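Colleagues,

For the teaching module next term, I've prepared a clean inverse folding example: a structure given as tokens, and then the sequence designed for it. I'd like students to try predicting residues themselves before seeing the answer, so please don't circulate the second half yet.
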């Protein structure tokens, strides 16, 4: 069996990709779990002591344990095509579970660990999941209690599985043959996007392999690299990143809850060469470097890489100069995890001012309001087509609305292509806030705010923030004569409604009346952004 990345990228399924990698380099390290405090220990883990014992799993061990776990899940009733929701943190066990489900040919629906009743309940109802894997008590929140509460409210309650330290296991001899077709829907990823209800984006194994293959090539990854996953593995970037490990044969450090300086020890102990994730991570690494002047923060780091949120050019220049390594930034979304990526050998102007170029197989069309392509340098709506683009949404009506007659996905982003094919993002056509790489629907938060008895109307806006990228600001018009609301009262109301913590406003502004236009009476959010953009007071979460 040949062992080049090109050979492996032809794998039909994720399980076949793991199987082939484990045959090639069974003893090579694949996953390294950063030694961290136990879940529930609080929001800010202390730095790990020198010599802390990080766990390691090889590619061969990953395959073997995934097969045993697949057998255990098979014994619980998981079958090819079964819909399995999981809400798990970034851990080795989570990766094992995903490959166990891939071995069975189940349909996975990952949920961000920060999701609460509102978002998780919507996903369970929409997918009609038969199984729901949760971590139990994690970081002070009882996911099992929520899972059982949600299950009891459904016509066909899913089987709740606790999957943190331990996973169900069985005899692999009892397993059916692995799936051979990677073109069927095997993943349902949820995006907050631009609508009040999250949308389930449908992905295939082949689509994720295509995205990971392009990203691995763009970053020039080799077996000598050590990567890092400090973002939620339940993002589409989780399996996408794992594809890169399998293709190139390098290990990655898994960080369950990233913090600085708390996570630095694990990065240094394991010699991480490629780090990042999103703009928020760049900013955090830079801030920590500035707290330790005269010493390189990560001596082995050769590349900072990421995407998922706007990246100011000045931040790019500061990171390169002060962290001492290149920074490449790309453009991706839940529906298409790899659209463009900067090239380490690009010019400084391209790296700082564009999102890079699309790889082979990804088509970008920039159009006017009527859908006609516009010339390079002209701003328009961005449309996408390619193997890495999702196959649609769980709701057929959303699919029909999101794709044009030529099969291009209509994004909510505006931008233009340069003459040499680099993409520049100039804005968003729809109302989305990107906080620490997470998409937040302003409309969803506004709907919950308006249910408060003291709130007459509300607008939610994103404001520039040096750490988060954007912070959430709630602009509230109260009921006449009502006592003044506080930020704590507003966030408590949102939490009681089951909204995720990452959607909570960090800033509250009370106004007599929201500004609206004279025709459609739409809230003039650009006026609110100009009026209330100022340094945020609460610390970043």
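(Answer key — instructors only)
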């Amino acid at each position: 069996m040949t062992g080049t990345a090109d050979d492996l990228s032809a794998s039909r399924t994720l399980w076949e990709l793991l199987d082939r990698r484990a045959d090639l380099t069974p003893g090579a390290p694949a996953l390294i779990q950063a030694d961290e405090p136990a879940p529930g220990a609080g929001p800010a883990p202390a730095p790990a002591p020198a010599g802390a014992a990080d766990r390691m799993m090889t590619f061969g061990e990953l395959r073997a344990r995934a097969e045993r776990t697949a057998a255990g899940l098979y014994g619980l009733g998981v079958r090819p095509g079964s819909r399995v929701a999981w809400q798990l943190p970034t851990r080795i066990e989570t990766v094992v579970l995903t490959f166990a489900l891939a071995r069975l040919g189940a349909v996975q629906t990952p949920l961000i660990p920060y999701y609460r009743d509102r978002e998780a309940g919507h996903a369970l109802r929409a997918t009609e999941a038969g199984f729901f894997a949760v971590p139990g008590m994690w970081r002070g929140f009882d996911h099992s209690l929520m899972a059982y509460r949600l299950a009891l409210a459904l016509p066909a309650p899913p089987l709740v599985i606790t999957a943190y330290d331990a996973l169900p296991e069985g005899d692999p001899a009892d397993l059916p043959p692995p799936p051979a077709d990677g073109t069927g829907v095997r993943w349902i990823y949820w995006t907050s996007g631009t609508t009040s209800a999250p949308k389930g984006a449908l992905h295939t194994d082949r689509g994720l392999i295509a995205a990971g293959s392009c990203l691995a090539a763009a970053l020039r990854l080799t077996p000598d690299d050590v990567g890092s996953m400090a973002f939620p593995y339940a993002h589409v970037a989780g399996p996408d990143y794992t594809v890169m490990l399998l293709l190139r044969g390098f290990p990655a450090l898994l960080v369950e809850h990233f913090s600085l300086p708390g996570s630095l020890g694990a990065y240094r102990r394991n010699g991480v060469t490629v780090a990042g994730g999103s703009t928020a991570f760049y900013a955090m690494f830079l801030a920590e470097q500035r707290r330790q002047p005269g010493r390189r923060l990560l001596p082995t780091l050769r590349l900072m890489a990421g995407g998922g949120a706007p990246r100011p050019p000045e931040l790019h220049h500061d990171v390169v100069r002060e962290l001492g390594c290149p920074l490449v930034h790309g453009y991706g979304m839940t529906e298409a995890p790899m659209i463009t990526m900067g090239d380490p050998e690009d010019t400084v102007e391209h790296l700082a001012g564009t999102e890079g170029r699309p790889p082979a197989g990804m088509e970008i069309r920039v159009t006017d309001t009527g859908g006609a392509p516009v010339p390079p340098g002209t701003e328009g709506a961005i449309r996408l087509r390619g193997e890495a683009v999702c196959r649609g949404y769980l709701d057929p009506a959303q699919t029909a609305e999101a794709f044009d007659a030529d099969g291009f996905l209509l994004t909510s982003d505006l931008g233009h292509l340069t003459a040499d094919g680099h993409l520049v993002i100039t804005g968003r056509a729809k109302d989305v806030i990107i906080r620490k790489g997470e998409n937040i629907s302003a409309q969803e938060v506004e709907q919950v705010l308006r249910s408060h008895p003291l709130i007459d109307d509300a607008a939610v806006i994103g404001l520039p923030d040096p750490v988060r990228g954007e912070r959430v600001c709630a602009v509230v018009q109260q009921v006449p004569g009502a006592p003044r609301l506080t930020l704590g009262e507003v966030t408590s109301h949102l939490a009681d409604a089951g909204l995720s913590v990452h959607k909570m406003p960090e800033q509250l502004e009370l106004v007599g009346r929201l500004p609206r236009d004279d025709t459609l009476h739409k809230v003039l959010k650009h006026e609110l952004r100009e009026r209330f953009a100022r340094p945020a007071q609460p610390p970043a979460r």
